[in-house]
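Bump. Still looking for HTH arsR-type domain-containing protein structure tokens.
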Amino acid sequence: MAPIERIDSADPQLDLVLHALAHPVRRHLLELLVVGDAAAGDLAASAAVNHGISRSRASQHLAVLAEAGLVDVVVDGTWRWHRLSRLPGAIVHAWLTQLASPYARCERPSPE
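Sorry for the wait, here they are.
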């Protein structure tokens, strides 16, 4: 198994991704994309129904996801299709794996 590249906790890409993942509406939108590509209007409608926000606000959440690189946007005429991007998920996975590594943990005396 190849070693995982060490991710600096101050990495700006990691900050963008974690910020994007911090909001429940954006996590909902990502979960919808797990099954496949979706039109922006359909994603916004789902967010509006499930989270009580406007479609305009849902579009702003989609923009945050795109800025973080979590989704790719394909323009087809008047349609904007969104799909999951794999790379930013990999940076979060690598960083979390670092945290879970036994080498990353400090030995602490157990409280008595």
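Strands lie at 38-39, 71-76, 79-84.

Edit: fixed formatting.
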